Amino acid sequence: MDIAIALHALAAVIWVGGMFFAYMALRPAAASRLEPAQRLPLWAATFARFFPWVWVAVIVLPVSGYWMAMHYFGGMGKVRMYINVMQGLGWVMILLYLHVYFAPYRRLARAVARQDWQDGGRQLGQIRRLIGVNLVLGLIVVAVATGGRYWPHG
User: How far is Cα 135 from Cα 20, in angstroms, rounded to an integer?
Assistant: First the structure.
């Protein structure tokens, strides 16, 4: 159980923390200091290094979460409401990530390779909006995970 909790927490911290850093620190700094010809390759390279970690997280989080539900809580039918809230929001986050990875991120990489800064900027804008949504969802999940057990009938 201790290993499952640790893996679950680490995966969440890596994914949500990475989104927070990218959205709140790297994005405004890059936008204010770099032209598209420098900014878009930076983002493509950043995502190329970050997204493998997100793949690990989107595997570890459900596997460890369901393992804990089955072995610690006695099955999904016995978990408290906050676990179901985390599970539902987590699946929405995973689906959004899969969309980002397989659609606008791939288009961004192709645009950067052909130095099409206009198309790359459109793809980065879509990625920015979706990561913003995922970041908000991730922060809500963290709040639910840390405070949910204190909810009445949580």
Answer: 7
